[in-house]
Design brief:
11 helices, coiled coil
């Protein structure tokens, strides 16, 4: 698409948004506006361009680069406005134009016919102008909006070219009086920078877009050429003069074409310079953004590493404290076990002492029993030797220890019953302790579940923080990808710039070749051919320039897209920066809150030392307790199962022992009663036997004495009477032998009865030893039950202590969370207020700056417009610069 150099204007205070102006109808009336470039301080010849060097602008002139605002407005003002010339100068120019009108008509007729070609859509009318420095301001016929944008832009481009080609050259003879013949070889034309190319038609200078335009003579000013005035030329040289005139015209046309191409090239170069500067600025912005993003990423990584280090340090400190507490608990448990072992050893020593005392007592009792038996034997032996008195005395002596032994047995029986009652009471106490131990285990299980729930909530918070950190990293990666895409677009833009430079080099080479061939070739026909070829080359160059313009348009569109993406990237970067700053602020607030909490903790430590110790212990032991509760609970469950098993075993053993003890006690009671009864019966029988034997012995002794006395008397009588003739009868002797045998049998029976008594006493001793062994085992079971009860009490105390510390820790954490939440909410609200206030202030500042710039731009344009339209006011004498509209006579200040 061909580049359009037309633009729009409205009133001096018009906004930037472009609008299409209505078309104008062609008019035959000439415009009273002229362009005197000398009055504007510009070069009127346009022979040299800015490509040849820089220039020093005059003082009393306003450049377009010094005025910030719509560039198209300035371009239209340069295109349409002219200086306010004096009336004498205007008349002299009209007269000069009238004198040279016919000659120029004849000289330019052929070329005018060649260039007046109709176009599709709008029709351009090419005609002769009134004066060389005077131009028409008319446009095409009424605009039809069905015309394509490319054709409208081509028409506007043709108008610009016509305006440039209508300017006079320094080589022309008969130039106007107001234009100098010899000017410097550099141009003072300020080439304005155009906005992105859009298909627009020309607007009025300072009128509104809907103001009807003044009918003008023609739309496009045709090329003017200098015609050599030679009135005295001979008729033979007319053809040569015409050919020379045509040659000069072609040279002028080629120069104007080259000048036109250089002007367009200067426009393109200025736009390229602006685009390059914008690209450099965007590159710097992208580099700054990359540096800031990298710095923010480094700071975020540093903050993350510091947070991880602090967490790791806290974990290590907690682990160290946990190890210290575990070592302390292990030492405490070892001390408790040592104390329990010492108590058990003391109890064992006491039991051994009691056992030894019981053994000594039993031995003493056995010794007394043996002594009693010995005395019984002695009494029995003495019973044979002694008489009745001795036997009675011995009988009284043996009755006393038997009654003592009976009393001792009854006392032992009462002691055994008392021990059985104490064992029953201890069994009931062990059952109650097992119940309390079970309840304590359930409470510890509930505390473990609560601690596990708290640990899950903490892990959830840590996971949430990790997800926010990952989302922030993802946004940073997106921003980096956007920056990479923008760099790629910048590289493509640089490639386009290199291609445009190559096209410029080709164009300059073609221009130099055309100029050299046009000046050095003597042959006219070959020169014409070369001029035609040069025109074709210029057309091809024009086509290349049009393609280059399209590429420039595409480049500008790509640049706009790049700017849009840069703006989106900047917005995302700002969002990321805000998120990172919010995270940093949250982290800083968390650190500050931690410092405040530490200060408060120190203050509380100074105020309450006892509470500080408990809080420190709770902080140091809470985490370890949470991790060790499961192990302790598993151990407690195992201990509980073991205790239940032992309790069941002890209960069964206790039941068996109670049953066996009861049966044994019944047997002992029965046996003791039987023994007592037997002993009493035997004693009674012995007493009766002894009494009977003593009576029998006394009778037998008395009978024996009587018999001996009778026998002695009889013997004496017999001796005296018969001298020994007679003897005792055998019957009496047999009776005496029988009595002696019966006495011996009674003694044997007594000996066997004493032996049986001894055997029963040994059996009773064995039963007593068994009872003592059962008592010892029962005492050991009682001590083990007491130990288990002590351990259960210790575990219960530890569980209550842990529960209290856990409740304290939960209360402290809840209070800290509430404080942190309130402080964070306050800080976020304050931050939002400050951000909104800053944005409002920035917006107000920007709006104020834009308003001031618009007012300044309007004042500058109005002042310059008044200077151009109405003349320069003498401000030193107090006059004010005035201005007026194009077709109105009112003045405004």
């Amino acid at each position: 698409m061909a580049r359009s150099h037309s633009s729009y204007t409205a009133s001096p205070t018009r906004s930037r948004s472009p609008r299409r102006s209505p078309a104008r109808r062609p008019s035959k009336d000439g415009s009273e506006y002229e362009m005197d470039l000398d009055a504007l301080g510009l070069n009127s010849t346009f022979e040299s361009t800015e490509l040849q060097g820089s220039h020093d602008p005059p003082v009393d002139r306003v450049d377009t680069s010094d005025i910030e605002g719509p560039e198209d407005f300035t371009m239209n003002m340069t295109y349409w406005m002219t200086a306010d010339l004096p009336l004498a100068q205007i008349k002299s120019r009209k007269e000069a134009a009238g004198r040279r009108g016919e000659i120029r008509m004849d000289a330019m007729h052929d070329e005018g016919a060649a260039q007046d070609t109709p176009e599709e859509g709008d029709r351009v009318v090419v005609a002769e102008t009134a004066s060389p420095a005077k131009r028409a301001t008319g446009t095409t016929d009424e605009r039809t909006y069905s015309t394509p944008a490319s054709e409208r832009s081509m028409e506007n481009d043709e108008k610009v070219r016509s305006f440039l080609s209508a300017l006079p050259d320094t080589d022309m003879e008969g130039a106007i009086a107001g234009t100098p013949l010899h000017m410097p070889k550099h141009s003072f034309l300020q080439v304005p920078r155009s906005s992105p190319p859009k298909a627009r038609s020309l607007q009025p200078t300072v009128e509104d877009y809907d103001t009807p335009r003044k009918p003008t003579q023609e739309t496009v000013i045709h090329h003017t050429s200098a015609v050599i005035e030679n009135a005295a030329a001979p008729s033979l040289h007319d053809q040569i003069a015409s050919l020379q005139t045509q040659l000069q015209h072609q040279e002028l046309a080629s120069k104007t074409r080259i000048l036109e191409l250089e002007t367009i090239l200067s426009y393109t170069r200025s736009e390229l310079d602006g685009a390059r500067a914008d690209n450099y600025k965007h590159t710097e912005k992208v580099a700054n953004l990359e540096k800031s993003i990298e710095q923010q990423r480094i700071e975020a990584s540093k903050a993350l590493l510091s947070a991880e280090d602090s967490l790791r340090a806290r974990e290590q400190a907690l682990d160290a404290k946990m190890l210290e507490y575990g070592e302390e608990m292990r030492l405490q448990t070892l001390a408790k076990l040592e104390n329990q072992r010492e108590d058990f050893n003391r109890q064992l020593e006491a039991l051994e002492k009691s056992k030894q005392f019981d053994e000594v007592e039993s031995q003493h009792k056995a010794q007394t029993l043996t002594d009693v038996l010995a005395e019984l034997d002695e009494l029995r032996d003495a019973n044979e030797r002694r008489q009745k008195e001795d036997q009675l005395a011995q009988q009284e002596d043996r009755e006393a220890p038997a009654s003592k032994e009976h009393a001792m047995l009854s006392e032992q029986l009462s002691i055994v019953e008392a021990r059985a009652n104490t064992l029953q009471a201890e069994l009931e106490k062990a059952t109650a302790a097992a119940k309390t131990f079970r309840q304590d285990a359930e409470s510890r299980e509930a505390a473990r579940h609560a601690a596990a729930a708290e640990s899950r909530t903490r892990s959830a918070r840590v996971f949430e923080l990790e997800t926010t950190l990952q989302s922030t990293k993802f946004e940073l990666e997106c921003a980096q990808t956007d920056v990479a895409a923008k760099q790629q677009l910048f590289r493509t833009n640089l490639d386009l710039n290199s291609r445009i430079r190559a096209l410029e080099a080709d164009l300059s080479a073609a221009r130099t070749n055309a100029i050299i061939t046009a000046r050095n070739d003597p042959n006219i026909t070959e020169l014409n051919n070369r001029i035609s070829t040069l025109q074709h080359q210029l057309k091809s160059a024009h086509a290349d320039i049009s393609t280059k313009d399209r590429e420039t348009v595409n480049m500008i569109a790509a640049q706009e897209e790049l700017e849009r993406r840069m703006n989106t990237g900047l917005g995302r970067t700002e969002v990321l920066q805000q998120s990172v700053t919010s995270l940093r602020q949250q982290l800083a607030e968390a650190h500050r809150e931690a410092e405040r909490s530490r200060a408060l903790a120190e203050q509380y430590e100074h105020e309450l030392k006892d509470v500080r110790d408990r809080l420190q212990d709770a902080h140091s032991e809470a985490d370890r307790r949470v991790t060790n509760l499961e192990q302790r609970l598993s151990k407690t469950k195992d201990a509980k199962a073991e205790a239940e098993r032992k309790f069941k075993e002890l209960q069964s053993q206790h039941c068996d022992l109670t049953e066996g003890h009861q049966a044994m006690m019944d047997d002992v009671r029965d046996k003791a009663e039987d023994a007592v009864r037997k002993a009493s019966m035997m004693l009674e029988q012995e007493r009766l036997e002894k009494k009977r034997v003593i009576r029998d012995l006394q009778r037998s002794k008395a009978d024996l004495e009587n018999a001996r006395a009778d026998i002695a008397q009889r013997d004496a009588e017999l001796e005296r009477s018969n001298d020994g003739e007679t003897s005792l009868s055998p019957m009496e002797a047999k009776e005496k032998d029988a009595e002696i045998a019966s006495l011996r049998n009674i003694i044997r029976k007594q000996v066997t009865e004493t032996k049986s008594l001894r055997i029963e006493i040994t059996a009773m001793r064995k039963d007593n030893g068994k009872l003592r062994a059962a008592m010892d085992s029962h005492n050991e079971n009682a001590t083990s039950i007491k130990n288990l009860k002590g351990e259960v009490d210790a575990l219960h105390a530890v569980n209550t202590l842990l529960q209290s510390r856990l409740e304290d820790q939960e209360a402290i954490n809840a209070a800290m969370d509430k404080q942190l939440a309130s402080m964070l909410s306050k800080l976020m609200k304050e931050k939002a207020k400050t951000v909104i206030g800053k944005r409002d202030e920035q917006w107000q500042d920007n709006v104020g700056q834009m308003r001031n710039e618009k007012e300044l731009l309007g004042r500058v344009l109005l002042r310059q417009w008044g200077r151009e339209e109405l003349g320069i006011a003498d401000e030193k004498q107090g006059e004010r610069q005035t201005y007026q509209y194009q077709h109105l006579k009112g003045e405004k200040t």
